[in-house]
Amino acid sequence: MRFPPLLRGRLIKRYKRFLADILLDDGREITAHCANPGSMMGVAIKDAQVWVSEHQDAKRKLPFSWAFVEIGKTLIPVNTSNPNKIAYEAIEAGVIPELTGYATIRREVKYGDASRIDILLEGAASDRIGCDKSCYVEVKNVHLSRRSGLAEFPDSVTTRGAKHLRELAKIAAGGERAVMLFIVQRSDCKGFAPAADIDPAYAEGLKAAMAGGVETLCYDCEVTLSEVVLRRALEMKLEDA
């Protein structure tokens, strides 16, 4: 996933979930759109160095969008819709071994109880075992890391996320493949665990879904100011939940 040239500044404050006041290096104080409905724990820090993109569309209410924040020496994208695009590009390129061998890939397909699956893989394009079944892939953004080397999800209570786990469990029970794919938008983590202290119901739901046949994958990203791409698989550490 590529990015246009960006402007640098300092975060003044993030508020009303979708707004962020930023002081740009050129002296302008702007309000940028923040495409992140979560708590942004650990990343929405006052005076943190940030980068924004500027849009020329006159129909936009806000011409700026918050794109990155730097915490310590770690560059982190803040847009929670990025992982869907990153995962789609990675699957198309065949860089997620667990999700190769399918003939078609579709996004935002209706299924279950008024839900939409992020990615649906269908049809066997090879003789790889399991590709005769449709594969439902739910993608979640991860940027929380409170302990060195450990990525965590969620950063706030997510009833919607728990619903998605139940929907995936139904898919698995019906004989199709169901995959929960966590995309960590940072490159300083070695493992992943659910944040059970923040949302114990989600942590228990994840364990139950896995016991019911839902596959779990977690990959981190190589992050630069021009591009974010999938990098490597991270170890799932459910015992740390």
Compute the number of strand runs: 16
Return the structural class. Answer: alpha+beta
Summarize the helix and strand pattern as letters: EEEEEEHEEEEEHEEHEEE
What does the overall shape look like? globular
Q: Into which percentage range does the β-strand content fall? A: 35-45%
Radius of gyration: 18 Å
The structural domain count equals 2
Distance between the termini: 31 Å
**DSSP summary: helix tally:** 3
Class of the largest domain in CATH?
Alpha Beta
Kindly state the percentage of residues in helix.
Answer: 10-25%
Residue ranges: pLDDT <50 for 5 or more in a row?
A: none
What CATH architecture of the largest domain would you give? 3-Layer(aba) Sandwich
The CATH topology of the largest domain is given as Trna Endonuclease, Chain: A, domain 1
Q: Which sequence of strands runs across the widest sheet?
A: 3-2-1-4-5-6
Largest sheet: number of strands, sense, barrel closure: 6 strands, antiparallel
Q: Return the average pLDDT rounded to an integer.
A: 94
Descriptors for this entry?
Trna Endonuclease, Chain: A, domain 1, single chain, OB fold (Dihydrolipoamide Acetyltransferase, E2P), 3 helices, 2 domains, 6-stranded mixed β-sheet, 241 residues, 6-stranded antiparallel β-sheet, alpha+beta
Per-chain topology:
Elements: E1 7-15, E2 19-24, E3 29-33, E4 49-54, E5 64-71, E6 74-77, H1 82-92, E7 102-111, E8 115-124, E9 135-142, E10 144-147, E11 150-153, H2 159-173, E12 177-184, E13 191-194, H3 200-211, E14 215-223, E15 228-233, E16 235-236
Parallel strand pairs: 9-12, 11-13, 12-14, 13-16
Antiparallel strand pairs: 1-2, 1-4, 2-3, 4-5, 5-6, 7-8, 8-9, 10-11, 14-15
Helix pairs in contact: 2-3
